[in-house]
């Protein structure tokens, strides 16, 4: 007798996506609330709807979903926005994350989590400082009144933040945690190597696919090209023992940036020919795609991201153990409170101290509030905690705390933003940057 497990799984995933979007639209709540809750209910109480042994295929599911989760967010960033807010995004994605992990690890001296080594603290905070692109987009897409510049910062952070957290975890925290010691200079050098090589390969792959897309002019082919690019960049990055996620993000953003430059040049030139070395080098007169086709590509990529998110939420449902969550309830609330406080302090740079650096503009108290509570955790945190070796004695603790923080961040942060925009903020969208 034939097994229809793949078909049933696809029906379940697509049904959850459609159901969550419909309920969210009618109730005017973030769809991620319904997705997360629905995934847990279906996985726990309707086993027939998920006939695939997810724990057995966990690694396969994760590797399949990662490119889809990051691709949509990377495609949505415009080159002009990245150029305008480069230092702000760098601060959010690299400096703030590194300082946050260091601040969290410093709690080791207070022995808040008994038994954990300093390396374990670094790993724990690297895992729980990573934001989730799909959750953030799902929540913020429901609200009006968020300035474009704030959206750019949030999107840029949700991508770069993840890459930084991954590097901090795999190349510093995890080796330190498992071996009990680390060579600080070697760790810093290794992290810089990973950043440099990952971004270099990403730029090369991005340019290659940008040129490739000039050979055809079909929105479906262009969408598939971006998907292939995302998977290829991730695989090459991982095979080269650097950051597949950073390679993927850099490649997609690079391709999109060159496309944006071509479209802007064509608009400004109004049919006039531009003669320049860089323009000639990238065949600027040959259009890789159009704005209309890019919108289609982005919308489809976003839907693929939601499908991948459902798969990750099923995996989350598998590791959710209510009894263990209750046992570690104090540690979960402490971790959630500490990460929230650290985020509030790191985001204060934009609210109160931005004027000290012209390239990092202040956003005011409201912008600080939005940036603080847009730090929802999700898929990447679940992925990272799973990567901890099974023989690590505190893995159960890591899984319970991370699961609890992910759930709390989605519902508490999401509800806080929803309450603010639903009942307190009534203005139309305006820029929040103060000059």
TrEMBL record:
Taxonomy, superkingdom: Bacteria
Annotated transmembrane regions: 6-25, 32-50, 56-77, 89-108, 161-179, 191-210, 303-320, 332-353, 365-388, 400-421
Domain named Cation/H+ exchanger transmembrane: residues: 18-418
Compartment(s) of residence: Cell membrane
BP-aspect Gene Ontology terms: regulation of intracellular pH; sodium ion import across plasma membrane
Any single Gene Ontology cellular-component annotation: plasma membrane
Membrane topology label: Multi-pass membrane protein
Keyword field contains Isomerase: no
Keywords (A to Z) from UniProt: Cell membrane, Ion transport, Membrane, Sodium, Sodium transport, Transmembrane, Transmembrane helix, Transport
InterPro entries linked: Cation/H_exchanger_CPA1, Cation/H_exchanger_TM
Xref: Pfam families: Na_H_Exchanger
Keyword Transferase: no
Gene Ontology molecular functions: potassium:proton antiporter activity; sodium:proton antiporter activity
Name the UniProt record assigns to this protein: Cation:proton antiporter
Organism from which the protein derives: Sulfurovum indicum
């Amino acid at each position: 007798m034939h097994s229809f497990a793949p078909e049933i799984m696809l029906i379940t995933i697509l049904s959850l996506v459609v159901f969550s979007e419909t309920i969210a639209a009618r109730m005017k709540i973030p769809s991620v609330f319904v997705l997360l809750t629905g995934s847990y209910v279906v996985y726990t109480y309707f086993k027939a709807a998920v006939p695939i042994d997810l724990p057995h295929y966990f690694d396969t599911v994760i590797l399949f979903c990662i490119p889809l989760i990051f691709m949509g967010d990377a495609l949505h960033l415009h080159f002009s926005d990245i150029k305008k807010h480069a230092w702000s995004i760098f601060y959010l994605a690299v400096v703030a994350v590194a300082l946050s992990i260091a601040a969290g690890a410093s709690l080791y001296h207070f022995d808040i989590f008994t038994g954990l080594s300093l390396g374990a603290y670094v790993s724990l905070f690297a895992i729980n400082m990573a934001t989730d692109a799909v959750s953030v987009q799902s929540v913020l897409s429901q609200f009006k009144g968020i300035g474009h510049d704030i959206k750019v910062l949030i999107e840029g952070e949700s991508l770069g933040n993840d890459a930084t957290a991954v590097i901090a975890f795999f190349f510093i925290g995890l080796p330190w945690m498992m071996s009990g010691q680390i060579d600080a200079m070697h760790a810093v050098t290794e992290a810089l190597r990973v950043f440099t090589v990952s971004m270099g390969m990403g730029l090369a792959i991005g340019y290659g696919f940008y040129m490739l897309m000039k050979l055809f002019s079909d929105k479906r082919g262009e969408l598939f090209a971006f998907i292939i690019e995302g998977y290829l960049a991730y695989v090459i990055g991982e095979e080269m023992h650097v950051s597949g996620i950073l390679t993927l993000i850099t490649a997609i953003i690079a391709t999109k940036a060159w496309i944006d430059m071509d479209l802007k040049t064509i608009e400004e030139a109004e049919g006039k020919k531009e003669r320049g070395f860089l323009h000639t080098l990238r065949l600027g007169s040959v259009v890789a795609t159009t704005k209309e086709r890019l919108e289609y590509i982005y919308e489809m990529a976003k839907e693929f991201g939601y499908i991948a998110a459902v798969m990750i939420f099923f995996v989350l449902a598998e590791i959710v153990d209510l009894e263990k969550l209750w046992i570690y309830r104090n540690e979960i609330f402490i971790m959630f409170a500490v990460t929230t406080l650290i985020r509030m302090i790191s985001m204060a740079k934009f609210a109160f101290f931005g004027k000290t650096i012209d390239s990092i503009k202040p956003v005011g108290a409201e912008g600080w509030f939005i940036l603080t509570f847009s730090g929802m955790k999700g898929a990447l945190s679940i992925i990272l905690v799973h990567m901890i070796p099974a023989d690590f004695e505190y893995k159960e603790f890591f899984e319970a705390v991370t699961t609890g923080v992910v759930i709390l961040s989605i519902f508490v942060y999401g509800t806080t933003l929803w309450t603010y925009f639903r009942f307190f903020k009534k203005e139309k969208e305006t820029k929040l940057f103060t000059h």
